[in-house]
Fold these 2 entries.
Entry 1:
Amino acid sequence: MADPNIIAVANQKGGVGKTTTAVNLGAGLAAQGHRVLIIDLDPQGNASTGVGNPVKGRKSTSYDLLSGRNSLTETTVPTSTDGLFLVPSTSDLSSADMDFSSRADRIKLLKAVLQGAEGYDYILVDCPPALGLLTVNALVAADSVLVPLQTEFYALEGLSQLLMTVREVRQGANQSLRVNGVVLTMYDGRNNLSQQVEADARSTLGELVYDTIIPRNVRISEAPSHGLPVTLYDPNSAGSRAYQALTKEFLSRQKEMRN
Ligand code: ADP
Ligand code: MG
């Protein structure tokens, strides 16, 4: 099996759809027959909950993985979805920035533990809402970064900061890092603002913006409380269909990138 393709799902803003995209793209890829690992790198642990891993059951976590206390195999657990695996997180990860601050290799902790990771086609890293050490670790370890962008006022403002961080990482610890694309989320077609943000994003970022748009859909927000991706919770909902379409577009972009 080839090396896994590692994708950081990042945006320093909270509530823009990072976790939702990591979980549902992950489930979409798994449904297509790929083996997928989600690494929850957010102390809030929403991705862990979202794939059916309750707080109480979390023994070995992404903190243990980064600290070197446990191996990738030891921290990985199956999820409610066939072919989808998880490294869960707990709130102890919130002290990672400080705990690892004196280590010379602190931005390469994730890269080091993923080196030689076997048995996965894709590894999706769900980043916390900050550009701190955890997100930098994800960017250093990743082949590409996928950026969910909520179609809201100010959406594009935070983006330049993120892209600047990506540039810094490319100039240093990970020269082959690419921007996979920008996914517009929580789109409301009846809202002029959503349409305006989409137009701005497409004119500013061009090809980087996925054709597929994720609509605001209540099924998407209900699914995590059942520990299921929306594609299993309500397969025919608009939200499920959008994430299936995103999965297809993601895969065809992967193919293009390889050529
Ligand atoms: P982030 O990980 O960037 O903080 P989340 O993926 O957790 O963002 O999304 C924030 C909240 O919005 C969550 O409650 C989630 O269920 C909800 N949400 C995300 N995407 C959608 C959508 N397309 N439609 C409706 N609710 C959504
Ligand atoms: Mg999140």
Entry 2:
Amino acid sequence: MSRRVFIASGANTTFIGKGHPDFIWKKHPDFGKRENPTLRELLTEAVNAAAAAINADLSLVDRGYIGNFVAELFVNQGHLGAALAGVHPALAHKPTMRVEGACASGGLAMICGVDALRAGSDVVLVTGVEVQTTQSARVGGDYLARAADYERQRPLDDFTFPALFARRMRAYREAYGVSEADIGLAAVKAYKNANKNPKAHMVARQMSLAEASAASDFNPNFLGNAELAPYLKVSDCSQVSDGASAMILASEEGLKKLGVRLEDSVEILGFGHSTDSLYVDGDLTVFNNTADAARKAYAAAGVRPEDVQVAEVHDCFTVAELLMVEALGFAERGGAAALYRDGVVDIDGRLPVNTGGGLVGFGHPVGATGVKQAVEIFRQMRGQCGAYQVPSAPRIGLSANMGGDDKTSVVTLYKSLA
Ligand code: CAA
């Protein structure tokens, strides 16, 4: 029997970037007077907020993990284990390390934390952070392309990942007769949920179905690759965001040390982790690697897809959310759009998905995302989500974090103990 693992606390910073009212750029009234938060500031804020929420003494931390993809490129900073050890005096000399798996870096940091607890640690700090707004979206597109098979896939487009998912969008829509408006429903939900979430990058940007269903000057088909361009608009894309997330994981003994009651925590029932070859692309109409991670996660947790009552899934692009919904067993292949048309995945639906806006609405600071997803499940189960709180007090939750084009997948199942 492996040891039980619990989330004792979790916190996210605001995710900001272009389009967020507080983001400093040349037309912002504070331009020249104030700077956007640094990686160090974001990480410190998230760790302190997670600790403050339960009055945690950080000297109790046995190990620390930090998920991050490419801080070396965006902010000229590597060696992030030492950055984590530097955010609070109590963390100095703790064993901390950075974990990297592209956009699944945060999910991998979390499962490292789970493994450490199962191996005997009692309190583990799991964090994720990314700062990306130091560069234009076009330069960022090149940096993020390092999560693809760079030599083979970089020539697709300056915006390599958007192009890879435009390719999936084309394949998926053609295979199942899914319309642009069907896909637009996912964007509308993402923005509608983000509008209710004060920490979301897109808190102030509205998105109507008409706008999400056809390209316009405000929502262009922006790819340079002429064949793929018609299949992707800006509204289909996750945001280039800065942000950090942190959570404190604990064993039963750890909860006691922290002074957190079992019924105020959320149990991590199990996870599945699968990785597929960077060098080969399979069927573009399905996330086979995520489906494999999901099978492992359901088996480890003793849970079925129909038991899940709230989910955070990796919508790096709108079509990815539909492919996730199918890979996780919530819909048949090609059948996800019906869940959007029928409101099943809305905040007040039977299976709320990405209640805070997901990567499209909440934002996607890539190394933070996997941790943010777990924090969001925790917050929903603890009733902390304010205007986007699901009304049904969910007992079983799921998160699915993905690196690259379905190459690294971490699916995790959670149970509320309230
Ligand atoms: N008409 C035509 N073209 C236009 C236009 C208009 N009205 N407005 C903009 N464009 C074009 C321009 O060519 C512009 O580029 P340049 O300014 O360099 O010429 C381009 O679109 C982008 O415009 P902006 O830079 O103004 O766009 P933005 O800053 O608003 O960014 C975005 C929009 C490009 C979609 C950006 O949000 C983005 O890149 N999102 C995706 C981020 C991403 O890929 N994240 C990783 C996800 S993949 C994953 O999660 C897995 C993993 O492991 C990586």
